[in-house]
Each structure stands twice: as structure tokens, then as C-alpha cells.
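Z., the sequence and structure:
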Amino acid sequence: MSEFYGTNDILYCPGFVWCLHADPGDGVKRLQQRLYERFQSEGRQVVVAEEADPRSMRKRLFQESATVDWLVQNSSLSQTSAEQTIGDFPVRVAPLLSQNAANPRRFLGMAAALSKDPEVLLYDTMGMDLAGMRRLHAYVRVRYAGCLIFVTPRTDLQTEFCPSQLCPTQGQCLRVQL
């Protein structure tokens, strides 16, 4: 995997998993933004699964934001569906959003993104531990059939098919440079 590819080498392929290793100088967010813009310019519905951020909700008169409220406000899910979705996560989720670490916040962001039923779904696992990464990769593979693009800052891998424990299984790994 010594050769770098560009964003135009990443093709829209429903049911396919791309595992993109970003050049450290480019960064994960810049690569995601470039891919988002490219697929959107092709007329595709694109969503970037962002980590749930407790600062993204207004605090109502000293009241902490509930986790389920964040999911309802950032997805197309009803209160009941959001509660069930959170209950189905393979990680423990605290009732208040501010009490959740990276793993549950990433799952919340993924659930919000999946509810929008995009053609192209971009995500990363920044801040997650290894067990959380594996669970998130498995979670999204079972629930999403579109073009899935995982972006990671790791570029030290030596084979075309990534043996890394950090990457989704059956993903086509490429080193990408902007």
C-alpha cells in the first residue's frame, strides 16, 4: 500500500466498504469534506456521521441535555424509536449526553446519520477505543447497504487489504492524498 490515491479514485459503489487512510498532512476531516463535496456534486445524498456533541444543544435553564433528546433532534427518529435505537447499541449509554464518552457519542452520531438513509456514508472512529471501533464497524455494516467510507489517519499499513484491527472487515483499503 505504498502508492497514494486521490479522491477521484474513490467510486460510488453501493454495498462496498472503502477504508481510506488519510495522508497525515491532509487530516481526516479535510478528506471527509473533500469526499462529501465530490459525491454531492455528483448528485448523491451524502452524510458524515459526526460524534454527538453535548455543546450542540442549547441548555434549557440549567437543565442538562438528555441523550435521547439529542438523537431525536439530530435524526428523523421519534422519541420511541430513538429510545429503542439507543437500547440496541452494543455499548452502554448514559441518560445525559454530557456523561457519555467517545464510544456512545460515536454510536449516537452514527444512528443519526443512518436515519437519513444516505447513498454515501462517511465516518471515522477518532477518540474511540479498540473495542468500540470494532463494535461500530459491525453495527454500521449490519444496518447500512449504501456506499460506506471509513476514514482513518493511519497510513503505516503495508497491504492492499488492511489487516489492521482498526479497519472494517472486507473494506478496500487505500492510502489517499488530497
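The beta strands are 4-5, 17-22, 46-48, 120-123, 147-152, 172-176. The first helix runs from residue 28 to 41.

Let me know what you think.
H.
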